[in-house]
Write a structure and sequence with these properties.
Layout (H helix, E strand, L loop, with lengths): L17 H8 L15 E4 L2 E8 L4 E6 L3 E3 L6 E6 L10 E8 L7 H15 L4 E10 L2 E12 L2 E12 L2 E10 L3 H14 L1 E2 L2
Antiparallel strand pairs: 1-2, 2-3, 3-11, 4-5, 5-6, 6-10, 7-8, 8-9, 9-10
Length: 198
Amino acid sequence: MNNTPQPKAFFKGHRLPLIIATVLLAFFSLSSLMGYFSRETMKVNGTTFVAYKNEEHGFQFFYPEDWLIDEPSSANVAVFLATKSTKPIERGFFIVGIDKLKSPGESLASYTAETLQNLQEKIPDFTVLESRETVLGGQPTYEIIQTATVNGHSIKSRQIWYLKKGVAYNVSYSVSAYFYKRYEPAANKMFESFKIYS
């Protein structure tokens, strides 16, 4: 009998910082992840990136064709990607979370303040290394680069959140701090190609 916790179990509830779910998943089975194929591809420095499009939530981006991908049956997470690795601590993760705003007119500043407070309260040793307002895919966004200690491991993450039509799109890349540079070029391309079209 398989007692391995499934990804969706970690994503239920309200405005849970995605880094928590990301890091927890790093220490469990990824057997539920599957390959996702699309006809639209692009080459970047010899790496093939495949188009992913989510019709339900109205966003798209390109990801490396050798990354594993899944769409958890969750209210919070639209798509979850992970690098292939036999060692859990070496896995890199890219997650797109969907968060319904408390009010359609909630501002980026208000959402940012609450999200940062949430992270500081829920994550041990949470430290913001960089933070700024920026624009990606034509959308005003807020970005942070952070570290935290989970299960004795230092985890480094980059998170960007977009607000549009009463919804926050929370996009994150996380991995053990030691391996952050390994997947950073691929993660950067995923961030750069992320677009909301709904």
